[in-house]
């Protein structure tokens, strides 16, 4: 059930109406869009890409928990700086995931850089 506050007058609204329209705040604006049921493709390429992502997240978490050479604060700061220099700034974790996936696709041997 949608919670409406005079949506046609732009006071505000949130929620869905009859699985047809969705009202929600976005970047300070009250917006509406068509209700969409997302697809979940299970093509070979999509399953492979999801595997890369799962491997990256698991690998980063394992590196953080590694007792012999863990990711430390300096590593996280370095990845954050690296991510902030990209055309589309990203968090340290997203930058590490992107690097991991890029390396796994190119060489099949991903790694993380640490101090």
UniProtKB/TrEMBL annotation:
Name used for this protein in its record: Uncharacterized protein
Gene source species: marine sediment metagenome
